[in-house]
Amino acid sequence: xxxxxxxxxxxxxxxxxxxxxxxxxxxxxxxxxxxxxxxxxxxxxxxxxxxxxxxxxxxxxxxxxxxxxxxxxxxxxxxxxxxxxxxxxxxxxxxxxxxxxxxxxxxxxxxxxxxxxxxxxxxx
Length: 124
Fold this sequence. Notes:
Elements: H1 2-13, E1 23-25, H2 31-38, H3 55-59, E2 71-73, H4 89-120
Antiparallel strand pairs: 1-2
């Protein structure tokens, strides 16, 4: 989610840059995981997880595996200015609000799951 917020911030910062195209984070593709789960002989197996580098990890010297980081041009833009820039502040703020809502939802689900585990262990 921090990567998505960073991309939105870059879009907003370049809102007046001629020719700049809005970017977004590519959605996760779980098809490889589903294919790996079935396996060749029908026995379940789980593929190796992908690690996304945070800014702290990069600051400590971690190197990304590919340069794109899942960032692609945003195809869902509402307008393009005469200079070729297609960043719209309203679109970026709506996207930022959705990212914040998603983060809040995931955090609340995690908190509730931890609470259920504590109750199950007799610590709640």
